[in-house]
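Running log. JK asked me to keep both predictions on one page so they can be read side by side. First protein, sequence followed by its tokens:
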Amino acid sequence: METDTASAGPYVKQFSVFLINRAGALLSVVRLLGDAHVLVLGLSLQDSVDVTVARLIVSDPETVETLFIERGIPFSTCDLLVVQLKEGAEALGTCLTAFLQAETNIHFAYPLLVRGNGLPALALHLEDIEIGAAVMQTEGFKILRQNDISR
């Protein structure tokens, strides 16, 4: 079983960027990050008529926060639990079953674009991140921290 302590570093930081719903808005943000040598490691989009919320996991959160503030790009941040899934199709079911048994709600989830060690990873926004981390450790899943996915 993997061990995980507070000394392992902070949880993964997610940026929610509020984009006006027009062609090229997301591309502009991705190019801005690319010009700053920041990689987008995870992406989820929630679209509505007027605005799109782009949820981003990046390789360098400090640089991104500075860029967004300097450019006046509206954003918010939150911590996510990133779980490296074990090999095999049953890994997702095992992960979700553990959260159900612990009565921990998942607010949203999405996969990372980059796979560490060739294994898929799932980013989760949970009702209680500490309980979620403990449950995943008990089940033998590896928790990825920001320093595990950053450069």
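And the second, directly underneath as requested:
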Amino acid sequence: MTEENSEKQKKGYIDWLWLILLAFLIRSCAFEPYNIPSSSMVPTLLIGDYLFTSKFDYGYSKHSFPFSLPIIPHGRIFNNPPTRGDIVIFKMPKDQSTDYIKRVIGVPGDVIRMTNGRLYINDQMVPREFLQEEDWLTEAGIQRYSRYRETLPNGKQHEIYEINDVQVYDNTPPATVPEGHYFVMGDNRDNSLDSRDFGLVHEDLLEAKARFIFYSTNGDGYFFQFWRWTSFLRLDRFFMDLTK
């Protein structure tokens, strides 16, 4: 190998290292894709939705980085608290290794409880408007859900699914949200493992804010099969804003 070729190879390695570093920085500090693996956020998010999430909204902790690298050993820098209604990605409090996605329902100072299937924030029942009944294919078969539009105290609206008001987590004791913690719930209220089960989410476990859906598929085809796009791509969900 000539000296000139050796120098070019060396520069090539350096370029690759810079590209890897740039990708690491973008994924850690700016944007990261995320796909929906479960039905806990139906009807807002469906299995097969692919999202872009933003890392900078809430600041950074070690969980902002791939594999939770302890670049920030403790705490959070540039901390900016989420607001009620945000859809957030975070580490599961019990093991701090599994990524979860839920909606922020309770912020510091709130008292959250469920009574007979209704959500109460600070002793005020959160209003919900019945929209329609829908059949949804679950792992156990077809399930009939009631679809509601819920309005949080800050005016943020989103839609939820309920089987009925007598499910496992439809009656819970009051939970006071302390400073630096959040109460999160899935929009599929009767099929969601959330703060009603695993407790509050500490701010250091927050990873990102869900921004928009960039791709959605029902899983019955591959992207290169363009002649079948209308049968498996959910085109109406492309670029759906999740921050409203």
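Observation for JK regarding the second prediction: The CA atoms of residues 50 and 186 lie 17 Å apart.
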